[in-house]
Amino acid sequence: QVQLVESGGGLVQAGGSLRLSCAASGRTFSSYAMGWFRQAPGKEREFVAAISLSGGSTDYADSVKGRFTISRDNAKNTVYLQMNSLKPEDTAVYYCAANKPPYSNGYDYWGQGTQVTVSS
Predict the structure, then answer these.
(1) Residue 53 DSSP label
(2) Cα(first)–Cα(last) distance of the chain, in Å?
(3) How far apart are CA 41 and CA 93, in angstroms?
(4) Is 118 exposed, middle or buried (0-12, 13-18, 19+ CB in 10 A)?
(5) pLDDT for 17-64, tens place per residue?
(6) What share of the chain is helix, strand, coil (3-state, %, to 5)?
(7) Number of helices and strands in the chain (H, E)
(8) Model confidence at 69, in pLDDT bands (50, 70, 90)?
(9) Which of 65, 70, 98, 100 could form a disulfide with 49 if both were Cys (CB 3.0 to 4.6 A apart)?
(10) Contact 51, 103 (CB under 8 A)
């Protein structure tokens, strides 16, 4: 079992930046693939970014490529999402998620989410 706690959300103007953090409990963080998702009001949750165990491989939704960067620090049990050039359409609750071995059943653990609001 792992607990995930997101932080770093807030209100920012369009074009601004935010850095989200997700701190994980437990001693097996380095064995989890990690991801960020978001859900806007009235919309389904959507994939934003993912990162491999070591951080050597990343993946992004087309809508955030070139603007968002996912990273992780296994020594700190933390995954980050650096968000630059924010747009009003990035407004959503952002969730981090952990995918445990054998990595075949989707994401197993979810945080409570952090609100990101981008004003125009």
Answers:
(1) S
(2) 40
(3) 9
(4) buried
(5) 999 999 999 888 999 999 999 999 999 999 999 999 999 999 999 999
(6) 5, 50, 45
(7) 0, 11
(8) very high
(9) 70
(10) no
CA–CA separation, 30 and 53 (whole Å): 6
Question: By C-alpha distance, which of 95, 100, 79, 99 is closest to 40?
Answer: 95
Does 67 have pLDDT greater than 90? yes
The rounded distance, in Å, linking the Cα atoms of 118 and 92 is 9
Name the residue type at position 36: W
Average pLDDT over residues 75-99: 97
Backbone angles phi, psi at 40, to 5 degrees: -90, 160
- Report residue 45 as tokens: 């949750």
Cβ neighbors of 44 (< 8 A, separation 6 or more) are none
> What is the rounded CA–CA span in Å between residue 120 and residue 101?
41
**What pLDDT, on the 0 to 100 scale, is given for residue 1?**
82
Mean pLDDT rounded to a whole number for the chain: 96
